[in-house]
Amino acid sequence: MSAEFELCPGRKIGGSNPCFIIAEIGQNHQGDIEIAKKMIQMAKDCGADCAKFQKSEIEHRFTKHALERPYTSPHAWGPTYGAHKHHLEFSHQQYRELQQYANDIGIFFTASGMDEMAIEFLHEINVPFFKVASADTNNIPYLEKTAKKGRPMVISSGMQSMETMHCVYQTVKKHNPNFTFLQCTSAYPLPIEHVNLSLIPEFHKEFPDIPIGYSGHETGIHVSVAAVALGAKVLERHVTLDKTWKGSDHAASLEPAELAELVRAIRTVEMAMGSPIKQMLPCEASCHSKLGKSVVARKPLQKGEILTLDMLTVKVAEPQGVRPENIFKLVGKKITENLEKDATITDAMIDG
Questions:
Q1: Which segments does the entry list as coiled coil (predicted)?
Q2: What's the whole-number mean pLDDT along residues 300-326?
Q3: Whole-prediction pTM
Q4: What average pLDDT is seen over the chain?
């Protein structure tokens, strides 16, 4: 079983702990702090464990030319990419306000640090864990600086190879034992044939000492529920208040009713995973009493006869007796009383 650690105060992941569900608000708030607060409340109401945003220090994340290029997408919030990104970026004070709001209503709050300076700010405001977006997973200097800060890390694996993930593992493990990898494919929305849930058990084999999770960009909830059944201990899904809103992430996001149903489905599946010990359960007693079979006499038997297999058969009987799987153990044993045809054979009737 994978190692467990405390991802947030009082909330462990891995081992037998329930899946930690992250509602990824990202930038689906449209640059409006009141919408952002409504989304935090929605995440809480739907049963998610954490509301997550994306924090950038824009001039540190992008080059000057990248910010100045024209941006003509139907999702654009400004004439240049820089104007678009600035519209969607909350200030430090607004982040503190959102963090306080989340604290007040009782849901964990964090963000993906999209550059090293963003990580510095998130560290300053004491987020419980750092989320590493797929675009930074192979950014080794960033990973080293982030890992050295000592906070737990949730690391997505989109656009990476398993070879790269081993490099990431070695880089982070040197400085920080508390991290998890999320299986992720970076496409929005994600075609089902490229989800590759089979990588969850593969990650478990490659990295048996850390929890494994799933960051999904597909539509609907079924795949994410399956991910949990396969062992995902952290689940991240984008959320929105309205899939028709402007923004490239909304189409791959869950609306409130879907998020609530996902949380319910995950908790149901976790309960259904149950125990790996196979045994008859108390809840099966009624069915066994009605339908369970026993060894009975195939023909009348005389006291003192030595039993052979052709004297015995298996039927639903009243009362119940020797279990069918023990029929061969009766062969060669002496019966201690007279029995009519179809009489139940019990342990008390057997000599030796």
A1: none
A2: 97
A3: 0.92
A4: 97
